[in-house]
């Protein structure tokens, strides 16, 4: 394929004022340093395993932390069932999405590099703007979620140390704000790294880290069950009496949102698919990768969620790493940083598309502004090439991080925020757009059996999303009754 385009290029002349310019003889020369793919981009090298690793890294993040709480709301029967249902839906819509990476022919069709590109080439019109809006709001929300989760986790460590030092006599009240600010500052630094996605070792490191830290949660659950010798929890979840009838309903809905959040990874799938080498077609490889990663994350989530519930029963905390119960257990020092890494990596992975989008848009809108387009070279010790400082990138990314940090300080109730995000991102990005794009791409006839089934799936998921959003909003309303901004302490 690459060869044929290269040879065609030589016979490609432009006629202009009767003269013949041979334009593209030089074209292959620029790329001699790197082998290129059919679209002139550097050769992709991804495999099933790298793709699965990417997905798993991106998914197993802060979602794990509220799962024990979610299962506690639903109970031993409904909890795992709902998780299986979600994982099935996610896997299915991800396979639909994999087919939308190339428009037309699955091997040689035009590539879509991002989720937005796929929506643009398959649906077009106002839906592209709608998708962009939801996607970027979602990313903004995820950034807030990660800031809250990271600071809460760092705080849990600090408190457990303080707890230990005083042998549990000091209640160790502290504010989460300094931690949020610290996290924000590290993110400002990280966000200035251009091409964050090319640092593959970071991805591997982060994958290991997020597993470590989720397994801490898991280990704590197992330890607790072993210590007490009883498996807590009930078949129907938290009992009415502990909470009122209406609260039980709202919290069950919110639990759906939390689980949806733990599974919402469609937004990054196309970007990951864009790293895969072909043949076989990228879609084929991607479907395998999604299957592997869905199975791994579901198994992992069930373990974490169920162990947390078995350990703490109805009292399972909204964020596993902060529940009071864990304070003494968490104190061992060597776990100190395992909490912060996955968040900072995940924060960057999620925010990069948004950063890139705004920068591209600004450069197109004001092409002559030096502030936006000019790069200043700053030599840095021990780096081969100097660091390119772009003023606009610096200012805009810093502002972004600052705003998410401030909002996190105002909104510290982790699992409500997670529930709202899960609810708002889940249906449009995970179900609606993939289904619509697939219908458009495969030209599925209206009212055919296939079409009706897809629409029913989409409608059912919409209902779940609405219920989850309602439950989470109800949760926030309840929390706000007892809440004082900037004063959060645990």
Automatic annotation (TrEMBL):
Task: Provide the protein's localization.
Answer: Membrane
Q: Where mainly found?
A: membrane
Q: State whether keyword ATP-binding applies.
A: no
Q: Which UniProt keywords apply?
A: Amino-acid transport, Membrane, Transmembrane, Transmembrane helix, Transport
Keyword Membrane on entry: yes
TM spans (from-to): 48-67, 74-93, 133-157, 199-228, 249-270, 290-312, 394-414, 420-439, 451-478
Record InterPro entries: AA_transpt_TM
Amino acid transporter transmembrane domain residues are: 44-477
Spell out the Pfam families in the cross-references.
Answer: Aa_trans (PF01490)
Designated name of the protein: Amino acid transporter transmembrane domain-containing protein
In its UniProt entry, the species of origin is given as: Rehmannia glutinosa
Q: What is the lineage of its organism?
A: Eukaryota, Viridiplantae, Streptophyta, Embryophyta, Tracheophyta
């Amino acid at each position: 394929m690459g060869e044929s385009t290269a040879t065609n290029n030589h016979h490609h002349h432009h006629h202009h004022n009767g003269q013949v310019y041979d334009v593209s003889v030089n074209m292959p020369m620029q790329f001699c340093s790197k082998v290129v793919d059919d679209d002139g981009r550097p050769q992709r090298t991804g495999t099933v395993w790298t793709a699965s690793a990417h997905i798993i890294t991106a998914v197993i993040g802060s979602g794990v932390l509220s799962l024990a709480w979610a299962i506690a709301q639903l109970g031993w029967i409904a909890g795992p069932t709902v998780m299986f249902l979600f994982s099935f839906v996610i896997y299915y819509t991800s396979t639909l999405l994999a087919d939308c990476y190339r428009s037309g022919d699955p091997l040689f069709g035009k590539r879509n590099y991002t989720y937005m590109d796929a929506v643009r080439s398959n649906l077009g019109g106002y839906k592209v703007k709608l998708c962009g809006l939801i996607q970027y709001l979602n990313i903004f929300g995820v950034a807030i979620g990660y800031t809250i989760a990271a600071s809460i986790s760092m705080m849990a460590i600090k408190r457990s140390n303080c707890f230990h030092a005083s042998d549990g006599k000091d209640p160790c009240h502290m504010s989460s704000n300094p931690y949020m600010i610290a996290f924000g500052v590290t993110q400002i630094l990280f966000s200035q790294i251009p091409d964050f996605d090319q640092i593959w070792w970071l991805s591997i490191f982060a994958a290991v880290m997020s597993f470590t830290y989720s397994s801490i949660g898991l280990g704590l659950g197992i330890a607790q069950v072993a210590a007490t010798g009883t498996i807590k929890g009930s078949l129907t979840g938290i009992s009415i009496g502990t909470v009122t009838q209406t609260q039980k309903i709202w919290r069950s809905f919110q639990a759906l949102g939390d689980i949806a959040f733990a599974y919402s990874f469609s937004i990054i799938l196309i970007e990951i698919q864009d790293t895969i080498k072909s043949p076989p077609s990228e879609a084929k490889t991607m479907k395998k990768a999604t299957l592997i990663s869905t199975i791994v994350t579901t198994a992992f989530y069930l373990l974490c969620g169920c162990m947390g519930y078995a350990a703490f029963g109805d009292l399972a905390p909204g964020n596993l790493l902060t529940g009071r119960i864990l304070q003494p257990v968490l104190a061992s020092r060597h776990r100190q940083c395992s909490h912060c890494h996955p968040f900072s990596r995940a924060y960057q992975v999620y925010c990069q598309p948004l950063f890139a989008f705004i920068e591209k848009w600004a450069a197109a809108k004001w092409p002559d502004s030096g502030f936006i387009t000019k790069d200043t070279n700053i030599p840095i010790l021990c780096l081969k090439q100097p660091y390119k400082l772009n003023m606009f990138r610096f200012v805009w990314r810093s502002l972004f991080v600052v705003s998410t940090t401030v909002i996190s300080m105002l909104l510290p109730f982790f699992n409500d925020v997670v529930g709202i995000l899960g609810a708002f991102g889940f249906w449009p990005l995970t179900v609606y757009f993939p289904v619509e794009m697939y219908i458009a791409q495969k030209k599925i006839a209206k009212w055919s059996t296939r079409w009706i089934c897809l629409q029913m799936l989409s409608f059912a998921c919409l209902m779940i999303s609405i219920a989850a959003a309602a439950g989470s909003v109800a949760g926030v309303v309840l929390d706000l009754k007892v809440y004082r901004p900037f004063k959060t302490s645990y």
